[in-house]
């Protein structure tokens, strides 16, 4: 009996010592969170900060995909100097990017035909006559050069960009060379003449050159009226007298 009473006393003392010297889970949690700032959860704050560059990267990737697409009409950011603050009336050719890509493709195929056409022709069919091989190579080169020249002649009047300040007697245009590079020009309204030609896609003539403006995409009616002068007939001139 004395031994059992002694063991019971030791157990009660050890329980009392553990309860007074060991803090509870609640007190441990309060002591660990006492130094944290009061407010929104910092985990959500960090996640929101990480989401900002992710959204920015997604917007840049979407803009890159849109730039690589062939579209009809001016892009959202504009063309030929995107991001510039332009004043006045600005007209963009609706198929400017498509024409540039087609011209670059035509130029590349023409260069390949001129450089590799004769080599491929003379390396194949060794039993063929040399004169016949030369005729085939010349025909390939002539066809490629003719299609490239015809494409340039067909789209050379196309105005890729036009800038006009209301009240000014001149306006600036950007054409495209046969190497698909922009060519800036300044034209006076006084030099504009009606395009008396059967050539397709021609709006007016100035200084001996033809120019084309898409009337459906030129929203400024005053500018369009000055770019499309009416042909003065003898009857109208007699009535004005």
Question: Could you characterize what this model shows?
Answer:
This protein is of the alpha+beta class and 241 residues long. Helices cover 51% and strands 13% of the residues. It contains seven helices and seven strands, in the order αααβααββββββαα. The strands form two sheets. A four-stranded antiparallel sheet has the order 1-2-3-4, with no helix packed on it. β2 (161-164) and β3 (170-176) form a beta hairpin. The relative contact order is 0.08.
What labels would you give this structure?
241 residues; alpha+beta; 4-stranded antiparallel beta sheet; 7 helices; 7 strands; 51% helix; disordered C terminus
Taken in chain order, the helices and strands follow as: HHHEHHEEEEEEHH
- Give the helix tally: 7
Strand content: 5-15%
Helical content, roughly?
A: 40-55%
Q: Give the overall shape, derived from the CA principal axes.
A: flat
Mean pLDDT: 74
Backbone CA Rg? 39 Å
- Topology, number of strands: 7
The strand order across the widest sheet is 1-2-3-4
Structural class label:
alpha+beta
Largest sheet: 4 strands, antiparallel
